Amino acid sequence: MDAHILDQFRAIVGRGLISDPSQLHTYECDGLTNFRVMPMAVLLPKSTEEVQGIVRLCNREKIPFVARGSGTGLSGGALPVDKGIVISLARMNRILEVDLPNARVVVEPGVINSEVTARVAPQGYFYAPDPSSQSVCSIGGNVAENSGGAHCLKYGFTTTHVLALEVVLPDGSLVHFGSRAVDRPGYDLPGIFVGSEGTLGIATKVVLRIVKKPEVIQTLLAAFNSTNEAGTAVSEIIGAGMLPAAIEMMDNLSIQAAEASVHAGYPNCGGLLLVELDGPAAEVDDLMEQVGQICTQSGAWEIRVAQTETERAVVWKGRKAAFAAMGRISPNYIVQDGVIPRTALPKVLNEIERMSAKQGLKVANVFHAGDGNLHPLVLYDRRVPGQEERAMELSINILRLCVQCGGSITGEHGVGEEKKM
Question: What average pLDDT score do residues 138-145 get?
Answer without folding.
Answer: 98
